């Protein structure tokens, strides 16, 4: 079983660094395979709580090497919720890579565990419009949400703005899943590059 690893996070940092410098991206130091995957960027300044800067991935299996290369950039530069990450922000970033596993159909909308399961929510709204949204397993715990708060937040994430009723919740289709994840801070990435390549990255210095 493949697990998320330090080398995968390094590859995402390498990819974003290469985007800013125009340099060649070093070869991936992990075996390829196919998994649903996500790349999450967060930013923390002066020891503050890391704040989301981009999170995009795929629920369909993708080759790991091309998948992480694509989504490292997509999540950093093209998450519509945030402005694109700039080179001057690199020193404040942390990267989390997630491999999604163990997809199961939940018996009902509360048939999942906070901190263990991510969810794919699918439903048809009162206007007969099909909607869907997902949260990774760590989201509900990080936000301090209850199960109902998590589900209702997913409904809003899907774009539905009408009333959410208990009868509606009972009609939701929930697919739960688990993930293997690894988080790396930029400082750890710099230390890794110096140790393994004898050099420092070309971006991320103080402005």
UniProtKB/TrEMBL annotation:
Protein name: AMMECR1 domain-containing protein
Organism: Adiantum capillus-veneris
Domain AMMECR1: from-to ranges: 1-193
Classification via Gene3D superfamilies: Hypothetical protein ph0010, domain 1
InterPro entries per UniProt: AMMECR1 (IPR023473), AMMECR1_dom_sf (IPR036071), AMMECR1_domain (IPR002733), AMMECR1_N (IPR027485)
